Amino acid sequence: EADPAVCSRSRRAQLRLCLERLKGLVPLGAAAGRHTTLSLLTRARLHIQKLEDQERRALHQIEQLQREQRHLQRQLEKLGMERIRIDSIGSSLSSERSDSDRGETLRWGMASERSD
């Protein structure tokens, strides 16, 4: 069985090591000198809360941008469909034109001259 005093010293040494590592991860500001364990843990908790808040805001912004992207994608698809429809109307109109259509245009032009 291990000596309780040795286990206790080992545990305290490991806690000190973990606290030193935590100091390296938590922004301590100007008072980066000596911190109590309680003040370091309090700063760590506040830092974690700040990071969680930033994450929530970032996720909210991602959701908003995804909604906007879907909306713009639908608009783009509508415009594409509209363009296809307009192109098909334009091509069917141009293919329907013939020499007789041009002759009729000339007759309309003559009729308008007569009405002057």
TrEMBL record:
Q: Give an example GO cellular component term for this record.
A: nucleus
SMART domains named in the record: HLH (SM00353)
Q: In its UniProt entry, what is this protein called? A: MAD1 protein
For the region Disordered, give the residue spans: 90-116
Name of the gene this protein is made from: Mxd1
Every BHLH domain range: 1-51
What domain of life does the native source organism fall in? Eukaryota
Gene3D superfamilies from the UniProt entry? Helix-loop-helix DNA-binding domain
Organism this protein belongs to: Menura novaehollandiae
- Which Pfam family name is an example for this entry? HLH
List all Basic and acidic residues biased stretches: 96-105
Q: What is its main location?
A: nucleus
